[in-house]
Please model this.
Amino acid sequence: MDLALFVRHDETRWEIAPHGAMRVPAVIYATEDLIRAMDDKVYEQVTNVATLPGIVQASYAMPDAHWGYGFPIGGVAAFDPDHGGVVSAGGVGFDISCGVRCLHTHLRVEDVLAVQKALADVLFYKIPAGLGSTGAIRLSHTEMDAMLAGGARWAIEQGYGSEADLERIEEHGQMKGAKPGNVSDHAKKRQRDEMGTLGSGNHYLEVQKVAEIYDPEIANAFNLRENDVVVAIHCGSRGLGHQIGTEFLKRMAIAAGQHGITLPDRELACAPIHSDVGEEYLGAMRAAINCALANRQIITHLVRQAFAEVLPKARLSLLYDVSHNTCKVEEHEVNGVRRPLYVHRKGATRAFGPGHPDIPGVLRPVGQPVLIGGSMGTASYILCGTKEGEMRSFSSACHGAGRAMSRHAAYRQWKGRQVIDGLAARGILIRSPSSRGVAEEAPGAYKDVTEVVDAADAAGLARKVARVEPLVCIKG
Amino acid sequence: MDSHSPASARWEHFPHEADMGVRGIGATREQAFEQAALAMTAVIADLSGIQAQTPVDIECEAPDDELLFVDWLNAIVYEMATHHMLFSRYEVHIKDRRLSARAWGEPLDRERHQPAVEVKGATYTGLRVREEPNGQWVAECIVDV
Model:
């Protein structure tokens, strides 16, 4: 993008003054290089969000911002319900509560290297991945509603994990205010056989080694040392969330005019928080958050089973579980007053700083773990929320690397087998049902996640704690 | 850019940073919708490998052409997901704001079809349905994968 479009406030804060229908400024956090490389559509989308009713403070974009649909991917916006604020189905997206869960295995890298291939094979066998894969669980109508109300807590009650897992999940594993009755039969039907499945596209399950520690004190609180082995699970609410997003997007797009809302882009479809469709969406969206939390909990159970077969001495405990496509009610300080806001994060991770009451006691002195996924050939990062993030971005940070190349261009450039062999030569084992899928997800098709993470750290959105590198990747 | 052209009707993909654009072009609005559905299926798997064996009926309704187009694509996404099928032939009829269609396909075979990615939904981004000055209809939008 053209730097002349912005007022640069400091090294990493780029502001667009309100103009036209914008109610607040737009702010992008990024380095100069990242801003230059960003698509012009990010400018259009981040300023469009600034026009929505009831938006508070600014429309934000994280360092990994890229062209999304409606909101930019990497977009953050908060709305005040008492000032006509809206909830936007487009601002959450189709993959409601897509997120990353990180499990510590209490193993060292040498333990895994000895059985790396067997571990990759067992994980691939156990965890349903890719289009058309189905889980072993079939829920009755009553069980489906219980799952949508209970989230990871429901899954644990069914035997998929233990009570101790819950405190390391946002919302303690159960999103309150979920209304399973607001979820359509179509959405429930799409989920019928998809519980405990990874999905496809950029979703993955990785076994990773801790390659480098940047902040020993926080790493210690996270119980991370160099050469420790962790597991990352990246997936969301599957067909149920996709269907809810689809249905409410249409309803909100049609109803916008009746609510007196002018949409600069139909994909920004939204409704007043205090409206029938707004409240109905919130109940359904929260049910989808629970679906995602239950899904990652069931997958965690399958991962534990896989490790028990290959490496019985492993003990898999949660570091944390974050969601990066959500709308949540949080208290934030605006102009010196704390008030509840509806914070939309679309491809952005919540990053509460030290002392926040919503993070578990043992982590509270340091802050919330922020889990950032990279590509299957590079690295992922573990960061930690900061105090200053509260004022800068409603406690939000980036969520991943972002693509550098379309899927189509990647498929033309690489063959799946070539990608798999190249990574195997570097000690990274890929297992996937789709060769074309692997080609489209080739590491070279992604931006450098390190640059994005360094920018988030420099901007004070989150603090860099550790870099992790893949040993095994199950790709959907 | 990928394309496929039986007679004048054809489909294309157009690039989007993270997702994929699908475009159908035809002599009528119906043909453009049919072609765009093929474009969306081609995001998932190679069309030439999908047998048009079993028909499934699809109906949808929306207040304008653009919303109807997205509804149509999303109805296909739903049918693919719930029937575990892929389709390679579509026949669309539109009357007023109501679309009724038939899609022909076969059960998904992961070995044979090698599906690359699942389409989560069709979006209102990059959405256009219009008749060009040359009389051709174009229907396009970004699909989220």
